[in-house]
Design goal:
The protein is an alpha/beta fold. It has one domain: 2-Layer Sandwich (Transcription Regulator spoIIAA), CATH 3.30.750. Helices cover 38% and strands 28% of the residues. The protein contains three helices and five strands, in the order ββαβαβαβ. The chain has a five-stranded mixed β-sheet with strand order 1-2-3-4-5. Strand 4, helix 3 and strand 5 form a beta-alpha-beta unit. Helix 1 packs parallel to helix 2. Pfam families: STAS_2. This is Anti-sigma B factor antagonist.
Length: 104
């Protein structure tokens, strides 16, 4: 990590197309992990992506951009698991909810 104080992040499963987002997923987190996530998307290109959002306490446009990038790179819609209501609301307000499969 750099000198920016971040209170959230994304854990990447190196064995499959799976991310776990946690805490405050904001622009600081985006700038810190975007290259890692893009590499992971390329490495798992043909695999469906699952993103566990159950640990997210806050998300802004930076976090939304990470999710949107995932949808752009995958042949099938990413599956979002455990998305809190505030994340679902942001996806709907942004008009990108149809790019994902929402799974409780």
């Amino acid at each position: 990590m750099n000198d920016n104080k971040t209170f959230g992040g994304v854990r990447v499963d190196p064995t499959r197309a799976h991310w776990e987002m946690w805490g405050e997923v904001d622009a600081a987190v985006q700038s810190e992990v975007a290259h890692v996530l893009t590499d992971h998307l390329l490495e798992t290109a043909d695999e469906p992506l699952t993103v566990d959002l159950s640990g997210v306490t806050f998300i802004d446009s930076g976090g939304l951009r990470l999710l949107y990038t995932a949808a752009e790179h995958k042949p099938t819609p990413p599956v979002l698991v455990g998305a809190p209501a505030r994340v679902v609301d942001l996806l709907r307000l942004s008009g990108v909810d149809t790019l994902f499969i929402l799974n409780d």
